[in-house]
Amino acid sequence: NKLIAFWDDNGISIDGHIEHWYTDDTAKRFEAYGWNVIAGVDGHDVVALEAAIQKAKASSDKPTLICCKTVIGKGSPNKAGTHDVHGAALGHDEVEATRKNMGWNSPAFEIPADIYAGWDAKTKGQGLETLWNNKFAEYKKAFPAEAAEFERRMKGELPANWKAHVADKLAAINAKAETVATRKASQIAINALAPALPEFLGGSADLTGSNLTNWEGCHPVRHGKPGNYISYGVREFGMAAIMNGMALHGGVLPFGGTFLMFSEYSRNAIRMAALMKQRVIHVFTHDSIGLGEDGPTHQPVEQTATLRMIPNIDVWRPCDTVETMVGWVHSVERSDGPTCHILSRQNLPFMARDEATMANIAKGGYVLKDAAGAKAVIIATGSEVELAVKAQEALAAEGIAVRVVSMPSTNTFDRQDAAYKAGVLPKGLPRVAVEAGVTDFWRKYVGLEGAVIGIDSFGESAPAPALFKHFGITAEAVVAAVKGVL
Asked: Any idea which residues carry the catalytic annotation?
């Protein structure tokens, strides 16, 4: 009941009058959604609008749609009620004709003082803010702990014990050294972080059992029953847009899951989160041909690369439980944009690391396995890191030393200083990149002289191992590619 929406019903679209092709009964549609609907309001009558707003505020349990009948370009003698004023300037002659028609004598960009005063809400707003602040001050005296927690969440700040909590949980995950799918690793990370983050508000677009976005302390939102987990239904765009709204409101940290292939349905809202610099977390599972028999309609190929290309977005494609946890910590700590976690359906092996190596994961790309006198660098992400390590071992057996770089977040790696990036990817060493997706993206890292192993066609329906072999995404192919660039 905190939401009031206005429908500007002017009967016009950019393509012209709508009566010949738009047959929806919008008022009935919103009533069917469960909204309170106030129809037949003159959108040019300030008194009628104010009355409708007050009536909407009296609704105690529903959002309200106010249907406003308007004339687009009202006052323009030649263009009112036409699509000519939808997104186009009136032009000098029509502006002068409109001034004459409306009896408007004030110069351009000048608002008469009496009209400005009628619209100036600063004094009223300051009074309302003072009233709210005084009420909150009283609440703060009576409930200091609750008030402090409220302020922390609304400011988007992390708990005082956050760093210590993360360090303990990351150490425990590393010590456990589990071989699991990274979608499961994501659930492990959520379970680890949730006790410190009561502001978590998770959900899934009808794929909870596949995305594993639920956790031990989550409670599904139901009609008349609050919770911290939303069943969005098969509405990927709706989920992403709703999460944007919650992030803009503040006080909660929204995340939602679906298959990576279905990120296409969410794309506009994901882009808007990046544009608006909102902390929204997307969990995209079933990240490649590794999902197997569902076939090419469900097997992402270009999705990871194109998500990375959205300005101000961070994309993480981890290879094991530790990288997944680091990616989650990064997405929680990030305050200026959204993060996408790209996660596998199939199990992936744990990669052992020392403390220094673990510390570099947060930089987005790092040396996972080095070799003295390395002659080449293999760059990999996600499920293909295992192939890179196997290729390194096979090449070592032939006396060829190579370095393995895991790059779970290219966006994050690209923001590092030049010295760090050059230390990970030394100039002069040929490079091979391997990722189960489109290959063009990796050219900026390997150059024209390097090699990229990936997939530039749609997938097929078959078991995952057969598909990786069919498309040539194997350790043997990596070995051959390295030899080819030396």
From this structure: 236
